[in-house]
Specification:
Layout (H helix, E strand, L loop, with lengths): L1 E5 L5 H8 L3 E5 L14 E2 L5 E2 L8 H13 L2 E4 L5 H14 L16 H9 L6 H28 E2 L9 H17 L4 E11 L2 E9 L11 H11 L5 E12 L7 H12 L3 H13 L1 E2 L5 E2 L14 H14 L34 H4 L5 H17 L4 E12 L2 E12 L36 E11 L6 E2 H11 L7 H10 L3 E4 L2 E4 L1 H13 L6 H17 L3 H21 L4 E2 L4 E5 L6 E7 L2 E5 L9 E3 L5 E2 L7 E6 L5 E5 L8 E2 L2 E6 L6 E4 L6 E3 L6
Helix pairs in contact: 1-4, 3-5, 5-16, 5-17, 6-14, 6-15, 8-12, 8-13, 9-12
């Protein structure tokens, strides 16, 4: 029996069915050997040697790996095809005492029979450069986090705070954007149009140029009135017509960040929901008679590369379903950015024949939405250009110039499957009409004037980041990598450095204070280009064999001097406590907002004389069990949301499902909603 060791338990059944008899599959459940949380665990005086340990909750996993490996004829390491996967594979080899020169590492970008079988036929040794790149990142992040966090905690009188190598510079992006917004001064401008008609076709022409022939921008009512007076009763005459055939290239297939952006913008999915849905699609879902099947390739990638086999399959499908006009003669290729880890393909469906329509009945709502996006985006990326009949018409009136533009599709090409919202070039970036058909206009024509339209507007500040646009900003700046975007954004939110306002992310007062403090003492850490440069060095460790110890040392030596300078400074910051309008029922003082291990809560400022506390969340409704307490939404130690009675420990009502506030007609137990399936049901397992 050959033991195959993978990472996630979710893909165990999918992989097992492709291995056949003679193989057993065991999952590590992610990292099982890591730096302990209680100490620095990096020997900075001896080559930055990490001191790994096995967390207590992973002892059983390690025992199971050792026991099964001892009985196996051989062991294959099939952890994920990235740096983290290579590191987990290294730790598997370490605890089993496997020779690092053994060709026992297999990797596959997709969980399909063909990919798994090919991996079995082509085992390799562990990639030590890839492992050392992960180890360097882990050591760097530990050194920064454990050395920097005490500085922030000492200087800002709030509570135990944290800072991080990528976390802090990501927070800086949010703070810089907020300061742009705060400093923004609106400027007045006016949109000005003439509504015209020719051959019974009405159209709108935009004021484009002034009396001097140069592009004009109206900034006040007096300027508007001057134009109105000049064009009043003036003849509108076409002075120039420019016709052209314009083309629109297909977009590349998804990377992690572009998938996350579309998931939010097109399907309203948060990073967390997108990540959960993507993981399920990659690991495999039950498809009736097909069994557990992986639907998409590896979901953590920044590469646009697509395998030749997938391109051939896509072309055959396009020819069959859409016709030859939609399939380009030569395949579409997309150039990945320089820093892309090209070991993985872009995100695509594993089987083009498993259409969104054919599998949607087996998928949860988020999974179905995301699979449709991935499927259509990939197929569109392999299609021909869309072409348009475009026209730009210049019209003169009263010495001013107006311009009307039109665009109608000649051939839909890739847009038959995937739509991208386009922005106009005006200051607000409003969406422009997708297609505008103008009448047939020639030089010398005099369209009939119908009416003027002019509207006062003011320039708007830059928009706050959403989760999706912050991911895009991180990617463009070169900070973080596909696997780290979501955890970093969630981390700064969990630390209360940022908060949500609708979909927008804004920094809290604490977030401003942390950035200002770090900016003062740690110029390199807070420099976006410096952080991006470190990411490139980590890539060079992985792919160019750069010495990881040297990279750490070049960073750490000046960093320690900055730490000393910061700790010696006297500029401590006190953030005003947030006072609520809720009176303490025990002593009458107004409760204040405090932050604990599990989030915000209300506390009496009279502590320790008065120890009254209340949940920060608003009560949802009365507890269905005790009827006197109220149900609150809470967060577990691992960050999972649950619902419990605020009268605990006097009342022990608790559930992972969302209570509706109603009771079951049969057994009087609470009626709840399953957060995944959205099924409304009785909370009692005994109730029918």
């Amino acid at each position: 029996m050959t033991l195959v060791i993978i990472e996630g338990i979710g893909k165990k059944d999918t992989i097992k069915k492709y291995l056949g008899s003679g193989y057993d599959v065991l999952a590590t459940g992610g990292h099982f050997r890591d730096l302990p949380k209680s100490v620095l665990a990096v020997d900075v005086d001896n080559g930055y040697t990490p001191k790994y340990s096995i967390p207590r909750d992973k002892n059983e996993t390690v025992k199971k790996i050792k026991d099964k490996a001892a009985k196996a004829k051989s062991v294959l390491i099939a952890t994920d095809p990235d740096r983290e996967g290579e590191a987990i594979g290294f730790h598997v080899a370490h605890i089993l005492g496997l020779d690092p020169s053994l060709e026992n590492r297999i990797a596959f970008n997709e969980i399909t029979k063909k990919a798994v079988q090919e991996a079995l036929q082509n085992p390799r040794t562990l990639d030590m450069d890839l492992f050392q790149a992960q180890q360097a990142r882990r050591v760097l992040d530990r050194l920064v986090g454990y050395k920097l966090s005490p500085v922030v905690s000492k200087k800002i009188k709030k509570s135990k705070l944290s800072a991080g190598r990528v976390q802090s510079v990501t927070l800086k992006l949010v703070v810089l954007r907020e300061r742009e917004i705060l400093a923004f001064v609106p400027e007045e401008y006016w949109d000005f149009f003439s509504h015209l008609e020719k051959d019974s076709v009405k159209f709108r022409a935009t004021l484009h140029s002034g009396l001097d022939g140069k592009k004009i921008k109206l900034t006040n009512k007096d300027e508007v009135d001057a134009v109105v007076k000049a064009v009043d009763k003036a003849k509108y005459e076409v002075v120039n017509v420019k016709k052209s055939i314009t083309k629109s290239n297909a977009p590349p297939p998804y990377t992690t960040s572009s998938m996350q952006q579309d998931a939010l913008n097109k399907a309203g999915m948060s990073l967390k929901r997108c990540g959960m849905a993507a993981q399920a699609l990659y690991e495999g879902v039950e498809l009736g008679e097909h069994g557990k099947t992986a639907l998409v390739t590896y979901i953590r990638t920044d590469s646009f590369r697509v395998s030749p086999e997938a391109q051939h399959e896509a072309k055959a499908w396009i020819l069959e379903k859409y016709g030859a006009d939609y399939a380009p003669e030569t395949f579409n290729f997309y150039k990945s950015k320089k820093s892309a880890q090209d070991a993985h393909e872009a995100i695509r469906p594993t089987n083009i024949h498993l259409t969104p329509e054919s599998v949607s009945k087996y998928l949860a709502p988020d999974q179905a939405k995301l699979y449709r996006l991935i499927y259509n985006r990939f197929l569109a990326s392999q299609m021909t250009q869309a072409t348009y009949d475009s026209v730009s018409v210049d019209i003169a009136a009263g010495g001013y110039g107006f311009r009307a533009t039109g665009r109608v599709p000649i051939f839909l090409g890739w847009t038959v499957l995937y739509q991208q919202k386009e922005k106009s070039s005006d200051e607000e970036g409003e969406e422009k009409e997708e297609f505008v058909k103008l009448p047939n206009l020639e030089v010398g024509d005099t369209p009939e004037f119908l009416k003027l339209e002019f509207t006062q507007k003011f320039t708007k500040p830059p928009a706050r980041y959403t989760e999706a646009t912050l991911v895009k900003a991180m990617e463009e700046a070169g900070i973080g990598r596909p696997a780290t975007y979501n955890p970093i954004i969630q981390n700064i939110a969990n630390r209360y450095y940022t908060e949500k306002e609708g979909k927008s992310i804004k920094p809290t007062e604490l977030g401003f204070a942390v950035v200002d403090l770090l900016d003062k003492y740690f110029k390199d850490i807070m420099n976006i280009e410096f952080t991006a440069g470190l990411e490139e060095k980590l890539d060079d460790i992985a792919y160019e064999g750069l010495d990881w110890v040297k990279v750490i040392d070049e960073f750490y030596q000046p960093f320690t001097k900055d730490i000393e300078t910061a700790m010696a400074g006297e500029d401590n910051i006190t953030i005003a406590q947030e006072v609520s309008d809720i009176e303490c029922e025990k002593c009458g003082k107004l409760l204040v907002v405090r932050i604990g291990r599990f989030g915000k809560f209300y506390a009496c400022p009279g502590f320790p004389a008065c120890r009254n506390i209340k949940p920060y969340e608003k009560p949802l409704f009365n507890c269905p069990k005790c009827t006197t307490g109220a149900i609150y939404k809470k967060k577990s130690k691992k960050g999972r949301m649950f619902y419990g009675c605020g009268a605990y420990p006097n009342c022990d009502f608790v559930t992972w499902d969302e209570p509706t506030g109603k009771l079951c007609d049969k057994c009087k137990s609470p009626i709840v909603t399953d957060p995944k399936s959205k099924q409304v049901k009785c909370s009692s397992k005994e109730c029918t």
